[in-house]
Design brief:
alpha/beta, Rossmann fold, 4-stranded parallel sheet, two-stranded antiparallel ribbon
């Protein structure tokens, strides 16, 4: 006897009319700008329309959670892509910022139900950040955009499946 459940999953093509916001930190802009480029490239190559993508700049990673929550509460986007670079220094500042940004983004997603993909680098060195912003380790902005696309597609597939 075979038991084949109905499988519901998202795809990697931007659903028609899907709207995205990219929320990016200006701090560590030499890294974050590469993440933004990756996110925008990923959205474009997978079918997003420029008119349906907004780029919102915030001062630093610390400010991302309040802004993504505000955008998500507005109900005008299908997903948000958060990008920043938090690089460890010689003080505990890194630990506080990276932990709170992570918790804040997760909290905003749970509170609003809007997918917020995590493209925030938390690295021990500038070299590690560079590797994740388009060199050896790929571009985590691109990865976060692809995740956002798949989540929007999944949301629509769940609705279509009546779940």
């Amino acid at each position: 006897m075979s038991f084949d459940p109905r499988v519901v999953e998202g795809g990697l093509v931007v659903p028609k009319g899907a709207k995205f916001a990219v929320v990016a930190s200006r701090f560590n802009h030499f890294i974050v700008d590469r993440l933004v480029e990756g996110a925008l490239d990923g959205l474009s190559r997978h079918g997003a329309e420029a008119k349906n993508v907004s780029l919102v700049r915030v001062p630093g990673a610390w400010e991302i959670p309040v802004v993504v929550q505000r955008i998500a509460n507005g109900g005008k986007v299908d997903a948000i892509i958060a990008v920043a670079a938090v690089i460890r220094g010689s003080t505990p500042h890194f630990d506080y910022v990276s932990a709170e940004v992570s918790k804040g983004i997760a909290g905003a997603t749970m509170a609003t139900g809007v997918p917020i993909s995590f493209g925030v680098l938390t690295t021990d060195s500038i070299e590690q950040a560079v590797e994740r912003a388009g060199t050896k380790a790929g571009n985590k902005g691109w990865d976060a955009a692809i995740t956002a696309i798949e989540m929007v597609s999944l949301e629509r597939a769940i609705e279509a499946a009546g779940l």
